[in-house]
Specification:
Elements: H1 2-10, H2 14-26, H3 44-56, H4 58-68, H5 74-87, H6 90-113, H7 120-139, H8 141-158, H9 183-206, H10 211-217, H11 232-244, H12 246-249, H13 253-268, H14 277-283, H15 290-301, H16 307-319, H17 329-340, H18 348-357
Helix pairs in contact: 1-5, 2-4, 3-6, 4-5, 6-7, 6-8, 6-9, 7-9, 8-9, 10-11, 11-13, 14-15
Length: about 375
């Protein structure tokens, strides 16, 4: 990612961007992209786009760097040569294509995790499917990596770069020192498989470790169960939830089981299909089902990602500018609510009436 960010910074000037545009036009490609993307520290989906767009424009980027390296400016020439050497490195090409292959699978999950009103159940289903695909790729790593290695060999032959194993020594600390004479085996074992294992582990740790909690919440959503018959397992699930969220629910196990049975009977007589926790929460009466409603609120508000706090910080950054640095807390909260709830219409007359109530040096004449 550091190389990609450096390449973006290199072409982030009008003169160098013009060189890149001319090379893209001269090369017959099907891509519609004309600019590289920057590395975003928060939006993961933009990292996916960064890798995929760079892979499409790689030939134009290398030709542009070769052109820039012949310029008279020493700093620009040196930077272009360094980036060209980094891009034409075999390990970088293997890592780039490995990342692009896996990001192509996980990009739908990244887009989903950036959406609003996302519940844990929806994210868990997609994460489970992605985990199964990655595990299948891991088990069939020889075949999957062979496609990547063939692409790297082809592009390296165009650059007159030899695909070979790095120098091996008796004691290696900073990189893998695998005992093999095959470059394909070396890069598969040292780059492809470790990256896959790391990605699978992160999906399991960040999302799928909550599978037990989610499976217990399924007792609140009859539409998630194929057979709409109340089972003994659902009583165990509701008891598990009550024990886990004891301070919030504050009820006995017998009360929760009885209310769950009544909730199932109530839902079975409805024509609407409760597809998710949001739809169930809308029809759950707090006076009739206080325990079920509290548990549904917990399910809906379980944090899946940091996307919502990130949007809050972005809103605050737009509101609390340098000129508004001394804004009071009540006014800042009001501006924030106006920015968030844009569907609420604001009456100008009501605002003027409110302002006229406070004393001021110059009276407002209405």
């Amino acid at each position: 990612m550091g190389v990609l960010s450096s390449v973006y910074n290199c072409f982030n000037t009008p003169k160098r961007q013009e060189v890149l545009l001319s090379k893209i036009a001269s090369i017959e490609t099907n891509t519609k992209a004309t600019r590289l993307k920057n590395l975003c520290p928060t939006r993961w989906i933009q990292r996916h786009e960064l890798v995929l767009i760079f892979l499409e424009l790689q030939n134009a980027v290398t030709i542009s760097l070769e052109t820039i390296s012949s310029w008279q400016d020493k700093t620009t020439c040196s930077t272009a040569l360094q980036l060209l050497s980094a891009i034409q490195n075999v390990e970088f090409q293997i890592s780039l294509r490995t990342t692009a292959k896996i990001f192509g699978i996980t990009s739908p999950l990244s887009r989903l995790l950036q959406t609003e009103n996302l519940d844990l159940s929806t994210a868990m289903i997609l994460a489970t499917n992605i985990e199964e695909m990655l595990i299948k790729m891991r088990n069939d790593s020889e075949k999957e990596f062979n496609y990547i290695f063939n692409d790297v060999q082809k592009i390296c032959s165009d650059w007159d770069v030899d695909v070979k194993i790095p120098r091996k020594v008796g004691r290696q600390v900073h990189r893998s020192n695998i005992e093999t004479d095959s470059p394909e085996v070396y890069f598969r074992v040292s780059i492809f498989i470790p990256f896959l294992d790391f990605f699978i582990t992160q999906i399991q740790r960040r999302l799928l470790d909550h599978k037990q909690i989610l499976s217990s919440f399924h007792c609140l959503l009859p539409s998630k169960i194929n057979n709409l018959e109340f089972k003994k397992q659902f009583e165990t699930d509701i008891v598990h939830l009550v024990r886990r969220y004891e301070k919030i629910v504050n009820c006995s196990e017998e009360q929760s089981i009885g209310e769950l049975r009544l909730w199932w009977n109530y839902v079975s007589q409805m024509n609407d299909n409760l597809k998710n926790a949001h739809s169930a929460l809308l029809v759950c009466d707090e006076k009739i089902f206080p325990i079920i409603r509290k548990l549904l609120v917990i399910l809906v508000t379980l944090p899946v990602t940091t996307a919502t706090p990130e949007r809050t910080f972005s809103t605050l950054r737009r509101l609390k500018t340098y000129l508004r640095n001394t804004t009071g807390e009540s006014r800042l909260n009001g501006l924030g609510m106006l920015n968030i709830h844009r569907n609420i219409e604001i009456s100008t007359d009501a605002v003027l009436d409110e302002l006229s109530k406070s004393s001021r040096r110059i009276n407002i004449k209405l």
